[in-house]
Every structure is written in structure tokens, then in C-alpha cells.
Design a protein that fits this description.
alpha/beta, globular, about 260 residues, 11 strands, about 15% strand
């Protein structure tokens, strides 16, 4: 049965300007999750909070989601915690409340002990979240952290070209200051930097989309949204000279 899902990015930074401090680009990870949910037959919307916490109760009433998912980075944990409590306690949301993101992958037990979340997605969510939404929290779904602990480990996505393009239409594009549109051409990093969560989030093997797939997304974004400048979300964009050359040749031929 199709479900309605609301994906939320809590305010990343606070205390600057009018308190609407946002990332300068849309939350690409939530766009990927929304697209994967839609491809699985569910309805999905994205809300980038940006200091607009007061809008959440009305949004929950209007959209009436079955599932709410929130992403969290360590630097944004206080805002994440406040938003989770607002949704569950102040707004009275009684559906499935799901957490994900880098911080929760590293501190799942503490997070579930501190906050009224039902389940955490502790690896790449594009394949896992549609299963969770369809079936509910289950020990049979790999890549989850339940109140009883971890389920089975989930393998990394091997074929990134199989993912749908992010649900670009779900973003409020006028909220962002960047003239560059984000793309994620690859995932993973072979290095072991102690200060970085990439190895936990994406793994130590670099997995690339094909140059053709990335070029098609650029063309798609240009035709749909009008962006002709892009920023690459990749820890290791220049790892493969061959990939770069093939990609540059394709981009040079775009209209």
C-alpha cells in the first residue's frame, strides 16, 4: 500500500541574519531518498527547515504523512533533537518517525535513548527506506538500528547509475544562495582521515556513476530548472583521470 512520506532537513546553522540559515544548496541526500520512494510507488515531499520550525505543525496537518524522516549531521544535532521533539510531542505526530544521516550512523544507541524516534537508517537509504516505509520496522531489513539493536549489515550500492535522479522538483529553489547546482558523481573515499565521516557513510571503495549518467543529469537539471553551473559533491572527484577525461568530453558536447 502506498504511503505518504515527509523528509525533513533540520536547520543546519543558527544565529546568523534572520535565523534562516541554510545550506547554500538543496539537501541532495533527501532528494535521492524522495526519488527512490516515488520510484517505489510512495508519495514523498522534502522540507528544508531553515529556521522555519514554526511551520512544521501546520505542514504535518496539511500533508498528513504516514512516515516522517529526518537527517542529522553532528554539528546540527541540537536543532535535530529540537525538531524531533517538536514533531512528536508538540505537533502530536503518531506515525513512524525515522532518523538517518552521518551522526546517527555513529551514535545510534545514544540517539534512540535520548529522542522519541522509532528507527534509524544506518547506511545508504535509497534502497532501505522504501522497504522500511512499505513493511515497517523489521529485523529482516538490513541496515536499520531498532530499539533492540542493529539488524544485518547492508551492502553498499554497487550500481549508482541504477538510482533515479534526485527529486529536484521537491526543493524550494528560491531559498538557496548558490548559483551552482549540486551533483553527486561518486561515493566513497580510500583514505582514513580521523576527522571525516566519509568512510562510515560511503565506505572506503570509490564507486562512480558513469560519466554519461552524470552528464544526463546535468542536461536534465538545465532543461527543468535552468541551471548551467554545477558543484560536485564528491570526496574524491579527481581520483580517476580516465573518468575525468571522459566526463569532460561529454560535457563539452552538451548544448
Amino acid at each position: 500500500m502506498p504511503k505518504r512520506v515527509l523528509l525533513i532537513m533540520p536547520t543546519l546553522y543558527e544565529g546568523v541574519g534572520d535565523n534562516r540559515i541554510a545550506d547554500y544548496c538543496p539537501p541532495l541526500s533527501l532528494g535521492y531518498l524522495a526519488a527512490s520512494l516515488q520510484a517505489a510507488g510512495h508519495e514523498a515531499r522534502v522540507f528544508d527547515t531553515q529556521g522555519r520550525d514554526e511551520r512544521l505543525p501546520a505542514l504535518l496537518t496539511e500533508y498528513s504523512p504516514d512516515v516522517v524522516g529526518l537527517s542529522c549531521m553532528t554539528t546540527a544535532y541540537p536543532a535535530f533533537a529540537r525538531t524531533v521533539r517538536l514533531i512528536r510531542k508538540d505537533a502530536g505526530f503518531d506515525g513512524l518517525l525515522v532518523g538517518g544521516g552521518p551522526h546517527l550512523m555513529l551514535e545510534p544507541r545514544k540517539t534512540l535513548a535520548q529522542l522519541p524516534l522509532d528507527v534509524l537508517v544506518v547506511t545508504e537509504g535509497e534502497r532501505i527506506l522504501p522497504q522500511l516505509v512499505s513493511r515497517g520496522p523489521s529485523p529482516d531489513i538490513a541496515g536499520l538500528y531498532l530499539p533492540s539493536g542493529f539488524t544485518a549489515p547492508a551492502s553498499a550500492l554497487a550500481d549508482l547509475d541504477s538510482l533515479p535522479f534526485p527529486a529536484h522538483e521537491e526543493f524550494e529553489h528560491d531559498l538557496y544562495s548558490s548559483a551552482y547546482y549540486p551533483l553527486m558523481p561518486m561515493r566513497g573515499c580510500p583514505y582514513q582521515c580521523s576527522y571525516c565521516s566519509s568512510k562510515w557513510l560511503w565506505g572506503n571503495r570509490v564507486r562512480t556513476r558513469s560519466p554519461e549518467n552524470v552528464a544526463r543529469e546535468m542536461q536534465h537539471v538545465y532543461e527543468r530548472l535552468g541551471f548551467d553551473s554545477f558543484i560536485m559533491y564528491a570526496d574524491t572527484f579527481v581520483t580517476s583521470k580516465r573518468w575525468i577525461r571522459e566526463f569532460a568530453d561529454l560535457v563539452a558536447g552538451l548544448p
